[in-house]
Design brief:
The protein starts with a strand and ends with a helix. It contains 13 helices and twelve strands. Helix content is about 40%, strand content about 10%. The protein has about 375 residues and is of the alpha/beta class. Helix 1 runs antiparallel to helix 7, helix 3 packs parallel to helix 4 and helix 8 packs parallel to helix 13. The strands form three sheets. It has a seven-stranded mixed beta sheet with strand order 2-8-7-6-5-3-4, with helices on both faces. A three-stranded antiparallel beta sheet has the order 9-10-12, with helices on one face. Strands 1-11 form a two-stranded parallel sheet.
Length: about 375
């Protein structure tokens, strides 16, 4: 049976170079980086070199990179600490953020009475209404944090992160962006883009799961959520996963070395997939901004298929039987029966009754795989 992996937005295949890096570190760098003997100092050196390499890629200082277990922990660290330590009283976000942000904000609202506002989204497309964002920033004196993700993990909409950051600066608001789906796939220079905080996960750019980092702009005054030791400049207690962090730095370095070539290749693959679907499946639609390459990420396509609700129940099961890996939405919500909160927020009721599938790509995918997936979909729909 042919096997096709079209779920890179959930997690990516780890590059062979990254596996070799991790394996070597596991063999040779087993000292605790907080120990003062030679084994510990060697691990600490590797850790700090990884931090410097990551910081250089993003145009920041090493002190602004705080290693975490991934994007969710980074988001939670930033949001909770902003309320507790920076006296944020109001958060502006959107209804299509990752649940690592939405659920955390809901908890802050319930426990601390934080005022929460949801910025307007363009009908069906779901892109942020920047005029509405500016209006909300203008009409309050409360200490405000804006939290908007750079690339939406379900429909692929790309936020104008620079415009958003500058609006926040203009109105003296803090800006946090979940950049989990964009770092490693887009050129991002935080020395130019005035973002205050960002969250990143290694496994979205061909690195290991369980490693990530928070970018925390210097002198913001955030304090830790996890207490115990003085690791990560006192902002995140616990012994660092040196092997995973080394693998993350290696993955990020390779991602940016290959960025232009791989972006071109994957963009062509996505465009080919869209055209094949249009040619072979009349009535197919693309959710969010997926049909506009200027507003949508090149790594993802969210497809609304013209089949009945009854038939839709078997779709993912049938795709899996055919060896095709994809998803209904975020992998983090795969056990939910509520449907996609992103699609529920932006699609008309008529389209919500049809199945929507997220296909996400990497440079490991091929046009032959696209042909196979379209053939399987067409066979299922017409059967």
């Amino acid at each position: 049976m042919k096997k096709v992996y079209f779920d890179s937005a959930a997690t990516t295949q780890v590059r062979s170079e990254v596996i070799r890096c991790i394996t070597e570190v596991l063999k040779t760098e087993y000292g605790n980086p907080s120990s003062t003997h030679s084994y510990g100092r060697s691990s600490k050196s590797l850790l700090e070199n990884a931090r410097k390499e990551i910081a250089k890629i993003l145009g920041v200082t090493a002190a602004e990179i705080i290693f975490t277990s991934g994007g969710t922990e980074a988001d939670n660290l930033i949001l909770n600490s902003c309320v507790r330590d920076l006296k944020v009283a109001r958060i502006i976000t959107s209804k299509i953020e990752h649940h690592a942000v939405l659920y955390c904000i809901q908890e802050l609202q319930d426990k601390h009475g934080i005022e929460v506002e949801y910025v307007n989204l363009e009908a069906e497309c779901g892109s942020v209404d920047y005029d509405d964002l500016e209006s909300r920033l203008q009409h309050s004196n409360a200490k405000t944090l804006v939290s908007l993700m750079h690339v939406n993990n379900e429909v692929g909409n790309v936020l104008d992160i620079d415009r958003t950051a500058r609006l926040c600066k203009q109105y003296d608001a803090l800006f946090h962006s979940d950049t989990v789906q964009s770092v490693g796939h887009y050129e991002i220079d935080f020395s130019v883009i005035p973002v205050d905080f960002a969250a990143v996960a290694a496994h979205k750019f061909h690195g290991p799961k369980g490693a990530g980092f928070a970018f925390i702009r210097k002198n913001t005054g955030l304090k830790p959520l996890i207490f115990g030791g003085e690791q990560e400049r006192g902002l995140r207690a616990g012994t660092e996963a040196v092997y995973a962090i080394a693998g993350m730095a290696e993955a990020l370095k390779i991602a940016y070395q290959n960025l232009d070539k791989e972006k071109k290749y994957i963009t062509e693959l996505k465009d080919y997939f869209k055209q094949k679907l249009r040619d072979e499946i009349p009535g197919v639609k693309f959710n969010g901004a997926c049909d506009d390459n200027n507003k949508s990420t090149y790594t993802l396509l969210n497809v609304c298929l013209p089949i009945s609700e009854e038939k839709a129940l078997m779709l993912l099961f049938q795709l899996d039987l055919k060896g095709i890996a994809c998803s209904k939405g975020s992998a983090c919500q795969s056990g939910s029966t509520k449907g996609s909160h992103v699609l529920n927020a932006i699609l008309p009721e008529s389209d919500l009754k049809k199945p929507s599938i997220r296909f996400s790509f990497s440079s490991f995918n091929t046009k032959e795989e696209v042909d196979y997936v379209v053939d399987v979909l067409k066979e299922f729909i017409t059967a």
